[in-house]
């Protein structure tokens, strides 16, 4: 009798043990499932972030540096501050404001009313004739074949872009009777030669610098370099004042 009672008690406890084991296994597996869900969501968010990055065109990235507050619009103050931060100087910065915001901003607006604010989403509307064609018309995306064409005629494919290369580009890519486009091309390239001379002491621009200029990664580097250069000049001036 005792053996039968003991066997019945063991049979009643067995389902409880199975239920406890099942609940413990489900609870132990839940963190892994939640971690899997978290990792999948993080991977999907990172993928979407990469997708958003590629949605901007090279021309937009070229101009984003001058959008100082990141609102998608470039005011006259933004243009002047951005130009000054890379070392263009007061005169060239003021002329850039007049040309970019005074003459070109209206083309980027969705309204017919005059404006001096450049809208980055429509920056491709500021493209003009007689340009290099590195930015694709009506989209602003980078055309690598046209970029290679800039260096055609040099002694080497990766040779520096010089004033002679610039003159060859103007003659080759200019349109008939397009005086406005020709002037605009000069006003785009000559400040770059000035910056290269002011920062690095030469008018020969490397291919890497040209590529960085077109994709917009050049301007943050110039800003850091110019800030460091000004700091060194101030330190040297302070040392001279102390010696006096």
UniProtKB/TrEMBL annotation:
Keywords: Membrane, Transmembrane, Transmembrane helix. Pfam families: Caleosin. GO terms for molecular function: calcium ion binding; monooxygenase activity. The chain crosses the membrane at residues 83-107, 175-197. Residues 20-49 have a biased composition (Low complexity). InterPro entries: Caleosin-related. Residues 1-57, 225-244 are annotated as: Disordered. Belongs to the caleosin family. This is EF-hand domain-containing protein. It comes from Capsaspora owczarzaki (strain ATCC 30864).
């Amino acid at each position: 009798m005792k053996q039968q009672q003991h066997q019945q008690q063991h049979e009643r406890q067995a389902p409880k043990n199975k239920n406890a084991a099942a609940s413990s296994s489900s609870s132990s597996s839940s963190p892994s499932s939640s971690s899997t869900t978290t990792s999948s969501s993080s991977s999907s968010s990172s993928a979407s972030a990469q997708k958003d990055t590629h949605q901007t065109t090279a021309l937009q990235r070229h101009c984003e540096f001058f959008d100082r507050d990141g609102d998608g619009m470039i005011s006259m103050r933004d243009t002047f501050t951005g130009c000054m931060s890379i070392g263009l100087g007061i005169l060239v910065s003021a002329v850039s404001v007049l040309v970019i915001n005074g003459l070109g901003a209206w083309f980027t607006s969705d309204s017919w009313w005059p404006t001096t604010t450049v809208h980055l989403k429509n920056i491709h509307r500021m493209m003009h004739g007689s340009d290099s064609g590195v930015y694709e018309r009506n989209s602003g995306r980078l055309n690598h074949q046209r970029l290679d064409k800039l260096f055609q005629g040099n002694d080497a494919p990766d040779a520096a872009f010089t004033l002679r290369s610039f003159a060859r580009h103007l003659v080759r890519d200019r349109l008939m009777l397009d005086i406005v486009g020709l002037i605009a091309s000069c006003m785009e390239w000559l400040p770059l030669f000035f910056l290269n001379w002011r920062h690095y002491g030469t008018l020969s621009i490397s291919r890497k610098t040209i590529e960085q200029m077109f994709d917009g990664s050049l301007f943050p580097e110039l800003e850091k370099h110019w800030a460091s250069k000004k700091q060194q000049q101030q330190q040297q001036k302070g040392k001279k004042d102390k010696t006096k």
